[in-house]
Amino acid sequence: MPATRPLRILVVDDDPAMVGAITALVGTEGHQVVTAYDGLTAVRRVETERPDLVLLDLAMPGPDGFTVAGRIRVLGATPIIVVSGESSEPAKVRALELGADDYLVKPFGKAELLARINAVMRRADAAVGTGGAAGAQGPLTAGALTIDPGRVEARVGETVLALTPTEYRLLEALVRAGGNVVPHHRLSRAGWPAEADPDLLWLKPHLTRLRAKLAEAGGPAIVAVRGAGYRIDTGT
Question: What is the pLDDT of residue 112?
Fold first, then answer.
């Protein structure tokens, strides 16, 4: 399935052959590629080039991919797909905890790479476009937290939360439930609507970051209900 629009993609890998291969693959779909061969350059490219998407290796000179993912996430909500030869579960969990939106293990085929790019960008575009407001016309509240689906914005008091598209969708689903428990499978589908069967493993790291952002701003807590799902504390 082709992407909905041409993308500006930052490819970060210290292997020129891999950078060339990825560039050739995504170039056939009309995407423009910006490259970086080390961590420091990658962060600078994000700041100056403002890519639509980052394809990020983990092992590289200077700051490694984990550090780079964390720095990119501090800068904003640019989608990140880790593309790595490391297939261990701890590496995947750590990358997701730091803000990666997806994780692709090398070697991979063209179809899988393009499908993952398209899925991540559909989620990101839905969160910032009209799709983010589906099903709601006005703001929603949970204690001091206000969700504005029309603007795809969450704030605690006057503090606007810097959320990734996935974090926003998870938070909106919890607020819509009005303090009731949202089952794991339903919450995962809300967070990753383009995935037919989203991995429940993705929930915990994203909710951990979301909880921290809410706590820092003085917002309501997200409560884990063992064996059932999650709910947001509405204060009532």
Answer: 92
